[in-house]
């Protein structure tokens, strides 16, 4: 594998970073929160028009047919900008699920609409506290009953990919038999919902056994998003301590501050290396993906948590105010730490992926 992005991937990153820097300044994010908006719809439409939403969707279905590493470049820039868009729900999870498990007809119907941004989809897996892969929802004779919670971006989605046992089903959310209830969410720019299904019409997806692979691929993208957020925290903290004066000298000149930011930088580099390997393994070496995804997920959670906390610390008391920008990343970090499974789930996944260890980790 290569140990750096290609020239084309660097250009993709620069294009995405330039657009997001222009469209998502922190004051704009504050306005979205103050206005009660669940997402930045204008930005979403622009991302669709520029082709970013179709990055990993096949060209035959209106996408660009790019690799998971290419998609990771976009995820990283979205994480850096803390963008208020349902990219992870609609593209990383739902679109990939349809691509992996959907019938030819389901792919033809939904993937072009997801690639353009015309349709927003969510992924409903969890059923309350407990493992991300919990049973309970029942699909019988084309009717779905049960409850899923929390479901990210369900309030703005018109389609849901719902886990039913070890399989998946497609459900239109604008129909009788579907009730959506907004939940309290720590991340004010990514709303979560409870969805109750009471005999809602649903269409089973024929692909079987895809859930572990789907979650591994999603974990890699979550790692890329966390890396982008971590880098933003490091730059924010570094910029502040260079300007902040204490006892007649820059705060950045104190050894303790240098150590804090150095530890953050080291954690980011480790997480980034693992995310790159995970993106590569998803395409080139599927046998390595379970271990690569788990390693990327675990190191990215740790790096983002450290970066977000230290960014708050070096800012001091002002860092905890709404007027400061630190809280955007601290909130996003807390949400990303539990999406598609917490540390325990991925630690076991990593252990079970080691040769000769299958089934030994509890």
Main-sheet strand order equals 1-4-5-8
The third-level CATH topology of the largest domain is: Butyryl-CoA Dehydrogenase, subunit A, domain 3
Span of the ends, CA to CA: 32 Å
Oligomerization: single chain
Give the CATH architecture of the largest domain: Up-down Bundle
Q: Taking Cα atoms only, what radius of gyration do you get, to the nearest Å?
A: 20 Å
CATH superfamily of the largest domain: Butyryl-CoA Dehydrogenase, subunit A, domain 3
The percentage of residues in β strands lies in: 5-15%
CATH class type of the largest domain: Mainly Alpha
Polypeptide structure, described:
The protein has three domains: 7-116, Acyl-CoA dehydrogenase/oxidase, N-terminal domain (Butyryl-Coa Dehydrogenase, subunit A, domain 1); 121-204, Butyryl-CoA Dehydrogenase, subunit A, domain 2 (Beta Barrel), CATH 2.40.110; 211-352, Butyryl-CoA Dehydrogenase, subunit A, domain 3, CATH 1.20.140.10. With 362 residues, it is an alpha+beta fold. It has eleven helices and ten strands.
């Amino acid at each position: 594998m290569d140990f750096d992005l290609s020239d084309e991937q660097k250009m993709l990153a620069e294009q995405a970073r330039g657009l997001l820097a222009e469209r998502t300044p922190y004051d704009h994010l504050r306005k979205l929160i103050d206005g009660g908006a669940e997402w930045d719809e204008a930005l979403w439409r622009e991302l669709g028009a520029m082709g970013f939403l179709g990055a990993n969707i096949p060209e035959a279905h209106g996408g660009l047919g790019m690799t998971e590493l290419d998609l990771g470049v976009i995820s990283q820039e979205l994480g850096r900008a803390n963008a208020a868009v349902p990219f992870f729900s609609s593209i990383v999870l739902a679109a990939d699920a349809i691509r992996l498990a959907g019938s030819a007809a389901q792919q033809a119907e939904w993937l072009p609409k997801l690639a353009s941004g015309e349709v927003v989809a969510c992924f409903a897996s969890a059923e309350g506290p407990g493992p991300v892969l919990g049973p309970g929802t029942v699909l019988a004779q084309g009717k779905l009953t049960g409850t899923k919670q929390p479901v990210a971006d369900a309030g703005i989605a018109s389609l849901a990919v719902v886990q039913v046992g070890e399989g998946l089903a497609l459900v239109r959310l604008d129909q009788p038999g579907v009730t959506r209830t907004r939940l309290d969410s720590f991340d004010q720019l990514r709303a979560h919902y409870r969805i109750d299904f009471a005999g809602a019409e649903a269409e089973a997806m024929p692909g079987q056994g895809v859930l572990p692979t789907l979650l591994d691929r999603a974990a890699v993208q979550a790692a890329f998003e966390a890396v982008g957020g971590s880098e933003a925290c490091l730059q924010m903290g570094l910029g502040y301590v260079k300007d902040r004066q204490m006892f007649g000298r820059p705060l950045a000149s104190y050894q303790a501050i240098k150590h804090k930011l150095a530890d953050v930088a080291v954690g980011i580099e480790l997480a980034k290396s693992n995310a790159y390997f995970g993106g590569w393994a998803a395409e080139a070496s599927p046998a390595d993906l379970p271990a690569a995804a788990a390693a990327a997920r675990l190191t990215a959670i740790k790096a983002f948590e450290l970066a977000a906390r230290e960014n708050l610390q070096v800012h001091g008391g002002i860092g905890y105010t709404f007027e400061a920008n630190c809280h955007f990343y601290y909130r996003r970090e807390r949400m990303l730490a539990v999406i598609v499974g917490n540390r325990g789930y991925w630690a076991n996944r990593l252990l079970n992926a080691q040769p000769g260890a299958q089934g030994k980790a509890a």
